[in-house]
Design brief:
mainly beta; eight-stranded antiparallel β-sheet; 17 strands; five-stranded antiparallel β-sheet; 2 domains; OB fold (Dihydrolipoamide Acetyltransferase, E2P); 175 residues
Length: 175
């Protein structure tokens, strides 16, 4: 199953079929093999999530890190749960990780959510600048530009126009 958000609420590992949007609402989540409906309500400090098993609250505080990305400290209300340095990536943003391929290191640019490749804007061997658009992907009925996370040379393009991709799929690598 494809998902746009995974996380832990209380003792439960949830896979959201769609991320909570708006000030309140409901969504279907997967807990193991069971699909259940959850409700959420945002307040000034965070969010309340209501499961059939109980209600859980989370407070968020955020700041920019040294790379200019927003990172959050999340604490579970009334419990000992605390997570720091948590980053959330917007729909269509590229997830970036290093990979070892033989002797050389590369940067993998991955799909952050399932979608369809609309346009590939670079070819192997092309030089790209940081934040240059490299791929246009349609996800959740919106076109999103995937941008180069660093300057470099396109090593491989792993997708073609019209191709459907899953969340986490490699789109291209930069050398």
């Amino acid at each position: 199953m494809s998902s746009s958000l995974q996380g832990k609420v209380g003792a439960f590992d949830l896979v959201w079929k769609s991320a909570p949007r708006g000030n309140s609402g409901s969504s279907v989540v997967q807990i193991g093999t069971e699909s259940i409906e959850v409700h959420w309500r945002k307040d000034n400090d965070g969010i309340w999530i209501e499961l059939p098993y109980g209600v859980y609250g989370f407070d968020f505080s955020g700041e920019l890190n040294d790379q200019g990305n927003m990172v959050f400290r999340i604490s579970e209300r009334g419990r000992d749960g605390l997570w720091s340095e948590q980053a959330f990536i917007r729909a269509g943003a590229a997830a970036v990780s290093s990979q070892n391929s033989g002797k050389k290191k590369g940067i993998r640019v991955r799909a952050q959510m399932p979608g369809k490749i609309v346009r590939v804007m670079v070819q192997p061997g092309a030089s790209v600048e940081k934040d240059q658009p490299v791929i246009v992907m349609e996800a959740m009925k919106m076109e999103n530009e995937i941008r180069a996370p660093h300057a470099g040379i396109v090593d491989q393009v792993k997708v073609t126009e019209g191709q459907a991709v899953e969340s986490g799929a490699d789109l291209l690598t930069l050398a």
